[in-house]
Design goal:
It is built from seven helices and 14 strands. By secondary structure, the protein is α+β, with helices and mostly antiparallel strands. α1 runs antiparallel to α4. It is globular.
């Protein structure tokens, strides 16, 4: 069992342990639970964005060989390759906000291995172990370290790990066309703290831009409490990159088919960098509002 202090800015001092179960399953333990981070005199709360930061920290933690055995031989794979996130999905159970989150146990697993894609899932286990409190799946694309273009996964890695993929399902998301109803928008400038080591906007920053734009420009009755406690799932697709200092525009609108879903698109002057759908728990305030026949008449101008 190995412990390591996470190097990410927002998670300095987060205590994590990892250990191999049946390869390549890996258990991650946070003995102090989800951390409270003090930033500008504000206590960090367990928000969907905060969860994405925590999952991002765990992904880096299990892969980094400095923390002990690297998950699924990623240290060897990344010696001659790079990866980037192409899709992700965070699911948040209804019991998450009510759960007594003391010591936390998570389990990481491979769920898909394709020609050039690898999906990793992390389940945050509930104390009763009956179903995850939350989970996050990342689908990664492998890049050649020299040409920085997509390449096939090496045979040696596939031979060793493809049989361990638990579901075989790819987290494939088709891009969509922007709705004509996408009228609400907000702009953000990518700051240094929003970027990864390559100076590109980190995937967690896109989630924050979306939630902030929704709160700033949506119906005034949707509070940060609603956004922090009523979201059930965030599914995202990352077709492009945005660098530090660039300005992005966020558009969002109510889904034409699922009335409890909001869709988001982030773009700069060149192209679309991010698309996501945010679903709300049935019976939640936002879900009821979006479902209301009275609200549907005016929701077009709100979202």
């Amino acid at each position: 069992m190995t412990t390591f202090r996470s190097w990410q800015r927002l998670f300095k001092g987060v205590e994590m342990y990892k250990e191999i179960l049946t390869p390549p399953l890996m258990r991650i333990t946070l003995p102090k639970g989800i951390p409270k981070h003090i930033d500008s005199d504000t206590v960090w709360r367990t928000t969907p964005w905060g969860l994405s930061l925590l999952y991002d920290s765990m992904y880096r933690f299990i892969i980094d060989p400095r923390t002990g055995t690297s998950f699924a031989s990623f240290d060897k794979l990344l010696a001659s390759h790079r990866v980037y996130t192409i899709t992700s999905r965070i699911s948040i159970g209804k019991r998450f906000s009510q759960a007594e989150l003391g010591s936390l146990e998570c389990v990481a697993s491979l769920t898909h291995v394709g020609k050039s894609t690898i999906a990793i899932n992390i389940d945050m286990l509930s104390p009763s172990r009956d179903e995850p409190l939350s989970s996050c799946t990342h689908q990664l694309v492998l890049l050649d370290i020299t040409t920085k273009t997509k390449c096939h996964i090496p045979d040696w890695w596939k031979t060793k790990h493809v049989v361990s993929a638990t579901t075989g399902k790819s987290l494939h998301i088709e891009p969509w066309r922007k709705s004509e109803e996408a009228g609400s928008s907000a702009t953000f400038t990518v700051e240094a703290d929003d970027t990864d080591p390559n100076k590109h906007a980190n995937w967690t920053s896109f989630a924050r831009y979306c939630l902030q734009s929704c709160f700033q420009n949506g119906d005034s009755r949707i509070s940060d409490f609603n956004l922090n406690n009523e979201i059930s799932e965030i599914t995202a697709f990352y077709p492009g990159e945005v660098r530090k200092g660039e300005t992005v525009n966020v558009l969002f609108w109510r889904d034409a088919i699922l009335s409890t879903r909001l869709n988001f698109e982030i773009s700069n002057n060149k192209s679309t960098s991010f698309q996501a759908s945010v679903d709300f728990h049935s019976g939640s305030f936002v879900s009821a509002m979006l479902n209301s026949d009275i609200e549907k008449a005016s929701v077009k101008s709100m979202f």
